[in-house]
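Thread: FE2/S2 (inorganic) cluster complex, take 2
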Amino acid sequence: MYSEKVMDHFTNPRNVGEIADADGIGNVGNPKCGDIMKIYLKIENDVIVDAKFKTFGCGAAVATSSMATELVKGKTVEEALKLTNQAVAEALDGLPPVKMHCSNLAEEGIKAAIADYYEKQGRSTDEVFKFSGFCSSCDCHHHE
Ligand code: FES
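Output below.
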């Protein structure tokens, strides 16, 4: 049911942990299952130089977070904001449809961490919130 890439990133996840001096931290929850995710980003001149995650989530959430953190490293924050959960799932050779909601955690965690980075710099977070599935009016970061 899972691709080899999903199994690889689940059994050997990349970038698990914390970044002590992170420039942006995203804390999100998945309303469908109650699982939670924390993403840490180290950002220099708007380029993501390091990314780590911690999750209390299922295997698909672990695999997508592992892949998503790999994909955003080296990208600018603007490029990272365009990373969709579909793109992350495709990079893993697909997820079963019932597990697609799990990939929202990684996408939203990254967006929340970038929003935190913008806020810390006193910049507007409008750019972050214009992306779908991300809500500026409450803390849940997830509206469908
Ligand atoms: Fe909750 Fe997958 S079941 S993130």
